[in-house]
Amino acid sequence: MFLCPEILFDAGRVPTPCFVLDADRLRAxxxxxxxxxxxTGARILLALKGFAAWxxxxxxxxxxxxxxxxxxxxxxxxxxRLAREAFGGxxxxxxxxxxxxxxxxxxxxxxxxxxxxxxxxxxxxxxxxMHNQSRCPDRRIQCGLRINPEHSEGAAxxxxxxxxxxxxxxRRKDFDPTALEGISGLxxxxxxxxxxxxxxxxxxxxxxxxxPWLSQCRWINMGGGHHITRPDYDLDLLCRLLTDWRDRYQAxxxxxxxxxxxxxxxxxxxxxxxxxxxxxxxxxxxxxxPCHMPDVLEMPYxxxxxxxxEDGLPSRAGLPxxxxxxxxxxxxxxxxxxxxxxxxxxxxxxxxxxxxFEDMAIxxxxxxxxxxxxxxxxxxxxxxxxxGGQGFRLLRQFGYEDFKGRxx
Length: 408
What we know:
eight-stranded parallel barrel, decarboxylase, Ala_racemase/Decarboxylase_C, Lyase, Ornithine Decarboxylase, Chain A, domain 1, ten-stranded mixed β-sheet, TIM Barrel, elongated, about 400 residues, single chain, pyridoxal phosphate, alpha/beta, about 25% strand, 18 strands, Carboxynorspermidine/carboxyspermidine decarboxylase, 2 domains
């Protein structure tokens, strides 16, 4: 049920708060992704907006390590630079808009540049053409347009790129076929933590609105949100869809999952500092929810929590009232809403007791802040050692200079 559980509660080895990555789970996830690549010929890229712990890139990248992934996709210049320097392979970049300074920095870093509007494509096309003249033919930047099929799959509006009013992608009514000269592919993104049936419906919507231009594509990028590594994911349906589009349009297919790469591959450790009484017991932890796991407030969602039960074995906290003692888990910042949720435990929590929030490798790590001057969580990694036990390595700790250096 749990990977690396005893390490999470070993105060002598793992500090708190600390993001603890699971190397073996990362390997298992990318092995599933490679099955998709092998069966379909699709190329899967790591979406750095979801997971960018570069110390793990040798587990993921076929160019900088032993992993199977073909490259990474970036949403900014800094992500593109990290992809080029630390991940290798293909570097794809998309943003809602670029400025001239960013474009100058992107040109030597990227292999694919996707534009959110034909106006941006026309603006930067001359600079890209000039840059490509200095590159070898097989290293020239390929350019694409992001399209919006206006097809939503039920995600919360804040995460739905095709919601009404979305600024992301070109709608059919605004699509200008005369701007396609020099464009080699199309990109679309509609999903968020969804199964292959949602992709199937998306592909039908894309064909309905943009079918006449798909056959002109050298490549088609189906974006992210594919929850490929979760247990109930329909891999067979995904592979049929990808193979069908590859054969029908004679195009290289790309996927950009972020969560699927590091799904269930990390925790955030915490220590109970105090238990105070409000409407119910409130356990105050040595972290801040808005600082260290902001998606709990933004989505919102309720992460699973591990604790050591009376028998000394890891156990999962329950819904309120399901176990003997219910409390609210809260952070130490001054934000009144610094609360992770309400949980029940087999016994009252005590100061000094450790907890571990599950599935914290994705998005939480890339979104952390130093609000209130709270220090960023340490980063560590665990994996099986030669003797079959669990080893832990501390990768990074943060201090005052990390807080001070970003403010002026």
